[in-house]
Design a protein that fits this description.
Blueprint (H helix, E strand, L loop, with lengths): L6 H10 L3 E5 L8 H10 L3 E4 L12 H5 L3 E5 L10 E4 L23 E5 L7 H9 L5 E2 L19 H6 L3 E5 L4 H10 L2 E5 L6 E3 L3 H14 L5 E6 L7 H8 L5 E6 L4 H7 L3 E4 L4 H6 L7 E2 L1 H7 L14
Helix pairs in contact: 7-11
The structure holds iron/sulfur cluster.
Protein name: 2-(3-amino-3-carboxypropyl)histidine synthase
InterPro entries: DPH1/DPH2, DPH1/DPH2_1, DPH1/DPH2_2, DPH1/DPH2_3, DPH1/DPH2_euk_archaea, Dph2_arc
Pathway: Protein modification; peptidyl-diphthamide biosynthesis
């Protein structure tokens, strides 16, 4: 049996009565496709594999699902309630004692909100116990429909951090994007701990803000504006796109599945506003030929939001 398929998933497959199973893996796990398909075929299932890029549960392989009875989506927790999909979280372990490395940057006199990604959410209580044993008060916020695990954050949702309501957070995970996002979403101080290397740092949003300010100023000169509306299952913000297009007669809504530098270049607009995955504007601006603003940033350009009310985009 494939180790990537949990006993719960095998049980759900059996009870679903499915005969053909579609598989969807994120990029970092795609190498596990052949062994997973082999295990399912050995168990008597026919298999359809989605080969398209996948970065989140917001991008379900509906084409592959249309050829199958059920879809197994690997690596992410659900972002919405969609029938016919089994979510197989993939857990990445680390030694919870690594949390000790973060204690020098945390203030023991105030509660610490604990946040992480879905891959590490199963270790949240153990990390909390390590810190509590050292005298810290730990708060883990509730999940919601988009982030169902306690303390879980996504690049498009920091609701669990808001629910914790603390003035400092410890983010356990790689990179600093989520930590910066929590800082911008809550106004709190955020310490980021890489659970593999033990490297610990304070998340600093100032560089991101400076870069975004430059793009906002460039966008003020745009004579044509494309409002990007994603057709992906969990990124489609139609009402928001309609609101944004109503702010200026020079704006048009552009429906897209994949947002690529080439497609934006060929469309030829002076500026785009991204209502798809928020990370596109923040992480990938250097790849794009013209400013790609978040919805709140575009509201600043159009004068319906003050710069002092700058907020990070969330779905
Ligand atoms: S919208 Fe972006 S950040 Fe949110 S789940 Fe999808 S890929 Fe991840």
């Amino acid at each position: 049996m494939s180790k990537i398929l949990s006993s719960e998933t095998w049980e759900r497959l059996r009870s679903s009565g499915a005969r053909t199973v579609a598989l969807q893996f994120p990029e970092g796990l795609k190498r596990r496709v052949p062994e997973t398909a082999a295990a399912l075929k050995e168990a008597g299932y026919a298999v359809i594999i989605s080969g398209d890029p996948c970065y989140g549960a917001c991008d379900l392989a509906t084409d592959a699902l249309s050829l199958a009875d059920i879809l197994i989506h690997f690596g992410h927790a659900p972002v919405d309630d969609r029938p016919g999909v089994i979510y197989e979280f993939v857990q990445f372990d680390f030694d919870p004692e690594v949390a000790e490395k973060a204690t020098s940057l945390l203030n023991k006199d105030q509660p610490v909100g604990l946040i992480t990604t879905v891959q590490h959410a199963h270790l949240t209580d153990k990390v909390a116990a390590v810190l509590e044993a050292r005298g810290f008060t730990i708060v883990v916020g509730d999940g919601n429909a988009r982030t169902p695990c306690r303390g879980q954050v996504l690049g498009c949702s920091y609701a669990s951090a808001r629910s914790a309501g603390t003035s400092q957070f410890l983010y356990v995970g790689t990179g600093v994007f989520h930590a910066i996002g929590v800082g911008l979403a809550t106004g709190a101080r955020v310490v980021a701990l890489d659970p593999y290397t033990g490297f610990v740092q304070e998340a600093d949003a100032s560089r991101l803000i400076r870069r975004r300010f430059v793009q906002i100023e460039k966008a003020r000169k745009a004579e044509t504006v494309g409002i990007i509306l994603s057709t992906k299952t969990g990124q489609r913000r139609e009402d928001l796109a309609r609101h944004l297009v109503s702010l200026s007669p020079v704006a048009d809504i552009i429906c897209m599945q994949e947002v690529s530098p080439d497609s934006l270049l060929n469309l030829g607009y002076d500026c785009y506003v991204n209502t798809a995955c928020p990370r596109l504007a923040y992480d990938d601006q250097v790849r794009f030929p013209v400013p790609v603003l978040s919805p709140p940033e575009y509201e600043i350009v159009r004068g319906v939001r003050d710069w002092d009310d700058y907020i990070i985009d969330e779905i």
